Amino acid sequence: MTVDPPTTASLFTGLSAFPLTPLADDRLDERSFARQIERLAGAGVDSITVLGSTGSYAYLTSEERARAAALAVANAGTTPVFVGVGALRTSQVLANVRSAEDAGARGILLAPMTYQPLTADDVYGLFGTVAEATELPVIVYDNPGTTRFEFTTELYGRIAELPGIASIKIPGVPADPGEARTRVDEIRAVVPGHVTIGVSGDASAAAGLNAGCDTWYSVIGGTLPDVALKISRAAREGRGADAVAESARLAPLWGLFAEFGGSLRVVAAIAEHLGLAPERCLPLPIQGLSEAQRSRVADVVRDLGLDG
Amino acid sequence: MTVDPPTTASLFTGLSAFPLTPLADDRLDERSFARQIERLAGAGVDSITVLGSTGSYAYLTSEERARAAALAVANAGTTPVFVGVGALRTSQVLANVRSAEDAGARGILLAPMTYQPLTADDVYGLFGTVAEATELPVIVYDNPGTTRFEFTTELYGRIAELPGIASIKIPGVPADPGEARTRVDEIRAVVPGHVTIGVSGDASAAAGLNAGCDTWYSVIGGTLPDVALKISRAAREGRGADAVAESARLAPLWGLFAEFGGSLRVVAAIAEHLGLAPERCLPLPIQGLSEAQRSRVADVVRDLGLDG
């Protein structure tokens, strides 16, 4: 496979894969992490975003995060690596930005983590400070299920005007194609043309891409890259119905995400089942799925042919 | 003033004051922190809980937390000091428990911080691990406004059965005395008799104490100890109406808490106004109140005679 070095314009398009950061005995499992990165690069994903929510960034020390960023770049070949830099305190975010730069990241992903609820001005100030502190392009990470911060469309617009903002990672879009298009157009209307829009919420990725999102910031892309690429490529090649059909085929997987409190525990169980991560690879206190739940995950993986 | 060394039974009763942990230029302002602690001990609060939510525990490094715990114990005289040990990852919590022990804390406060939402079993497991790892009594910290974890009464009961659990810090109670009593009785029915119940949410503290709570885990107690002691002592001495009247007198303060997104930014502005903390003492990205908002806070402080 030939991978052309992406231009800045295209860097934040296509499929960005979000791998897990597996722990073993509460330490970064460097070997399985490096193997995951190699596997994603080999599969041909357009970019790899390490230390996203799926990559447990919020749970790791700054040293662990620096190490993971360096390992990712070292094992990704020519595939661009983006690094999550979010933290509760601005000074900690800036330290993570430094280590992402040192690692050779091509972009950074920043979510407004909260303990005390933040105001819109707090969040705008955070993005302004970070954008000023680095030359790396910034992905605005809107993940209200974890950060509990609710972006408004207006705030997207204010932040997107900051120099260095390259992309916005939005939560899922409505399943209805018309409503999805309306939502994406609404965002597009308030952000500069060079800022790409990336959908997350894997179950609505096909709908988001068909509605005009430039990128899919993908949880399953980090563990099941082939099936994610099938959806991503169909949408990009104008075969929107094929993207929707493949997403619909994965309904049992989306069902497990909904039933088991989100994608993280399910994807970790899949990675463990496939031997991509050690057993119980999530940071405690997150216990991960029960044996009975894991057995259901394994059934779905087999039935959907995701273990091939 | 005579301070009797409390017995274990009475340790988690009365007024527990939650001071700020002021930062100056993003570093722990040791001098103002130590002075705050001395001031609280001098005022005669029953205990001091450092590194609560008001103490910005979630934003501080483990080194800063160890230092704050040690400073608190060194400056509290005979007043017992409890230390918040919460963190996103269990191993980080255990490191904070060690530093609280080393500092000479008399108890620890543990909130189930979340980034990924936690299950009840995750939280139960966390408390079990911590209770097993220390001889220090544990205060279960239920603060859904910051942790986004919703305890059930049933989960209070399960956790309270663990050895070492000494107290439960509950959110505010209903304003109606009958409803408040029903809520406290409901909790009392599921926890062992040695586990005290402490109310937080300062605006409902008088209602909570009158309804049978043993303790007030108090934000204003950390910055305005005299007025908090007035409410606490009235309630404990059976002068429930006096407690309610003093709380009602403070309605303009409670109004600012509600209007400005909670107590933290308001109390920080009060501490800064009174010279107890340096300007802009909260950790960024929390910007604190605007000048116009601070001016309103100062007016309320003056009108209520809280600057005396």
From TrEMBL, chains A, B:
One protein family per Pfam: DHDPS
Q: What is annotated as the active site? A: 141, 169
Give me the residues that bind pyruvate, please: 54
The Gene Ontology terms for molecular function here are:
4-hydroxy-tetrahydrodipicolinate synthase activity
* Gene3D superfamilies for the chain: Aldolase class I
The superkingdom of the source organism is Bacteria
Q: Which UniProt keywords apply?
A: Lyase
Family in the record = Belongs to the DapA family.
Q: What is this protein called?
A: 4-hydroxy-tetrahydrodipicolinate synthase
Species name for this entry?
Answer: Zhihengliuella halotolerans
Q: What is the lineage of its organism?
A: Bacteria, Bacillati, Actinomycetota, Actinomycetes, Micrococcales
